[in-house]
Input
Amino acid sequence: MKIYKTKDGIIVDDQSKYFLIANTDWDQFVNRKNLFNAVKPELEKLVPDSKLADVISARALAPIGGQEIWASGVTYLRSREARMEESKDTGGGDFYARVYEAERPELFFKSPSYRVVGSGDEVRIRKDSKWNVPEPELTLFMCSAGTIEGYTIGNDMSSRDIEGENPLYLPQAKSYNGSTAIGPCLYVAESPIHPDSMISIQIQRNQEKVFEGSISINRMKRTHTELAEFLFREITFPVGTYLMTGTGVVPPDHFTLQSRDVISISIEHIGTLVNTVA
Ligand code: DO4
Ligand code: MG
Output
C-alpha cells in the first residue's frame, strides 16, 4: 500500500482503492511496529473513494511529520569511485576507500523535517558551489522501535566540489535549504521491498534529456537492516526516522545541475519523485 500525506489528510492507496484517514496525526499513524498489519484492518472499516486519486495528484505533501532524515554514504561501488575521483587532488580519497570496506558505515544527518521538500517542489543548488548533482536513493522508514516499516524515494542533493575539497565539509555539501526531497508516498508492504527493484533517474533540461541512469538496489554493499541497526545504536527517534541508503548512480564528472533542470527519480513499487531545480 502507498500512504500519502496530503493537505486534506492521510490517503492510503491500497491496490488502487483510495481511503481517506481523516483527522489522524501523521506521526501517530506511521510510527507503529508492523505498520502494514496495523493499517490493513483499519481500511476494512472505511469506504473507498476514487476521487481521492485527484487529491493525491493536486495536494500531496512530503510524506513526513516529525521524523528526521539521515543518510548513508559510499554504499555502492559507483559512489566510492566518484568520491575518490572528486577528492583525488586534496587527499581525501583514502577515507572513502576505507569506509566502503569498514564494518561501520558512513551515516550522516541530512535534514530536519521542516527543511524537506516533496514531489513537485523545488530543490536548490548552493550559490557558493559550481558542481552539483542529485543523488537518487532508496530511503528506509523505521518506526521508533527501529524496525523497517516502509520506503520512500530520496534525493540527496550534493555539492561535489565542496565535498571533494575536504571530507570535513560534508555537512555543507549535503545540508542546506532545498537539499532534501522525499516522496511521493510512504510505501508499506507485508514483506521487504524486492531486492531486484530498480532505481532510475532522468534529468531534463529545456525538455531534453541530459542524463539518465539506473541501478538495482541489490548492488548495494550493505543490507538495509545493517544500516538501520547502526543508526539506532545510540540514538532514539520518538516518532521514527527516515534513512537514505546511498547512491549508486552518479552522472559523469563533467555534468553539473543547472537552474530549471527537472529531476525525476523512480523506484519500482514506490513511484516517481519529481523536482525542479530553483
Ligand atoms: O561521503 C559522502 C557521501 C556519499 C553519499 O551521499 C552517497 O554515497 O550517497
Ligand atoms: Mg547520498
In short: Residues 71, 73, 135, 137, 156, 244, 246-247 surround magnesium ion (ligand 2) (CB under 6 Å).
